[in-house]
Amino acid sequence: MTPYDPDNIFAKILKGDLPSETVYEDDATVVIMDIMPRTTGHALVLPREASRNILDISPEALAACVKTVQKVAKAAKAAYEADGVTVQHFVEGAGGQMVFHTHWHVLPRFEGVALRPHSGEMAPAEEIQAAAAKLRAALSGA
């Protein structure tokens, strides 16, 4: 397996070298808003522990991530009055992974509304901040 790159974008966010719209954190995980959201409320769950994906994450960090993914999924469904939630984890480039720090996508979903394509273009900051405020409020009440 390719070694972990400590200079990947999520590692830089976790070190505080790059900004993010953080909505939740605990000792093992951090939740940030995706700046290229495929739906309103698209959040990312990151372990603090350095790992590339589910193939090399420690069992302890994996368990912490799954606990946080569940918490965020429940909060996102409530915050956005979503009909459902999609949770995604991509593994290696061939599996669709683009950033090689373990992370899960939590996407609120609505009947009949397709996900936007991954365009590579950032959403307006105001849009991300508004979505973050809703999710943050739901998480604080969880």
Number of domains: 1
How would a crystallographer describe the biggest sheet? Answer: 5 strands, antiparallel
- The CATH topology: HIT family, subunit A
Number of helices: 3
Tally of extended strands?
5
N- and C-termini, Cα separation: 37 Å
Task: Lay out the secondary structure.
Blueprint: H1 9-15, E1 22-25, E2 29-33, E3 43-47, H2 59-79, E4 84-88, E5 104-109, H3 125-140
Antiparallel strand pairs: 1-2, 2-3, 3-5, 4-5
Helix pairs in contact: 2-3
Brief digest:
With 142 residues, the chain is α+β, with helices and mostly antiparallel strands.
Structure description:
The protein is an alpha+beta fold and 142 residues long. The chain has a single domain, classed as HIT family, subunit A (2-Layer Sandwich). Helix content is 31%, strand content 18%. It contains three helices and five strands. The chain has helices spanning 9-15, 59-79, 125-140, and strands spanning 22-25, 29-33, 43-47, 84-88, 104-109. It has a five-stranded antiparallel beta sheet with strand order 1-2-3-5-4. Helix 2 (59-79) packs across helix 3 (125-140). The radius of gyration is 14 Å and the shape is globular. The protein starts with 8 loop residues before the first helix and ends with a helix.
